[in-house]
Specification:
GO biological process, one term: heme catabolic process
Structural class: alpha/beta
Largest sheet: 6 strands, antiparallel
Order of helices and strands: EEEEEHEEHEHEEHHEHE
Cofactor: FAD
Organism: Enterobacter lignolyticus (strain SCF1)
GO molecular function: ferredoxin-NADP+ reductase activity; nucleotide binding
Radius of gyration: 18 Å
Distance between the termini: 22 Å
Enzyme class: oxidoreductase
Number of domains: 2
CATH class of the largest domain: Alpha Beta
Bound molecules: flavin-adenine dinucleotide, NADP nicotinamide-adenine-dinucleotide phosphate
Number of helices: 6
Oligomer: single chain
Strand content: 25-35%
Amino acid sequence: MADWVTGKVTNIEFWTDTLFSLTVHAPVHPFTAGQFTKLGLEIDGERVQRAYSYVNAPGNPELEFYLVTVPDGKLSPRLAALKPGDEVQVVSEAAGFFVLEEVPACDNLWMLATGTALGPYLSILQEGRDLDRFNNLVLVHAVRYAADLSYLPLMRELEQRYGGKLLIQTVVSRESVAGSLTGRVPALIDSGALESAVGLTMTAENSHVMLCGNPQMVRDTQQLLKETRQMTKHLRRRPGHMTAEHYW
Ligand SMILES: Cc1cc2nc3c(=O)[nH]c(=O)nc-3n(C[C@H](O)[C@H](O)[C@H](O)COP(=O)(O)OP(=O)(O)OC[C@H]3O[C@@H](n4cnc5c(N)ncnc54)[C@H](O)[C@@H]3O)c2cc1C
Ligand SMILES: NC(=O)c1ccc[n+]([C@@H]2O[C@H](COP(=O)([O-])OP(=O)(O)OC[C@H]3O[C@@H](n4cnc5c(N)ncnc54)[C@H](OP(=O)(O)O)[C@@H]3O)[C@@H](O)[C@H]2O)c1
């Protein structure tokens, strides 16, 4: 049984009509960067709960979540309507294996996200632990429109902080904008456009690929990497090159 605690919303910031970040104070147990918890609200007499990844680094008491309002969604529109001071239920014990401990050492660590699934990487990178095992870090944020790149300023700050070790690349699928690749992640890998934009290669010999977010993106990319780059899913009992988390 999950152990629920009562949290208090301290801030809600809207980046677009549908994308927002929720900051909560709650007496949760320590978590590992990359993990998620559950948020819950009482709706029509019953608790509706969903999984959300921590964006903040472990140890930071400002618990931050990055969300999209799913049209007709059961919980996300209700979370979007919260105001500072409102209560939200939080599961105190975080969960999930989308953490660096599960990723073997390599030259190039690719962190691929669609939409709100940028969160786990921001937590990992803000904490900055256990990254000496990689020579290069590449953070790729893929969204529909440039306006959905909510955390670009933080991504740029992190790029500075890592002094050349961290490369960031944005991908926009529904418009063409300077500085971003246009299209979808699997096609941009297949054509070589992502690697040339970043200046690094993605091979089974030199890379590990983390994938998070839209399950179709995750599946399509894994399939492509399997077929064209001989990459395999990473399992504890059989080390491979890909680690993934599906958001639905
Ligand atoms: C491990 C894990 C971590 C997650 N972390 C986050 C997070 O940090 N931020 C976040 O916004 N969501 C996250 N989700 C998704 C979240 O749990 C809910 O599914 C989402 O908020 C929709 O809930 P809902 O009740 O409003 O919609 P529902 O009525 O449950 O509708 C679900 C449908 O909404 C769509 N959908 C769900 N999540 C997303 C999303 N993130 N982006 C685009 N479309 C989506 C899909 O089409 C899905 O079938 C995570 C899910 C998992 C499994
Ligand atoms: N983002 C918005 O402006 C917006 C506005 C209103 C409502 N919403 C709602 O919010 C929810 C989530 O939207 P979202 O934009 O955050 O998430 P999303 O639909 O998962 O899209 C995020 C990115 O993933 C890409 N993608 C989708 N399938 C893929 C695949 N198989 N392979 C590779 N890439 C793939 C999308 O490309 P494509 O563009 O090619 O699909 C887009 O660039 C949806 O329910 C949507 O209706 C979003």
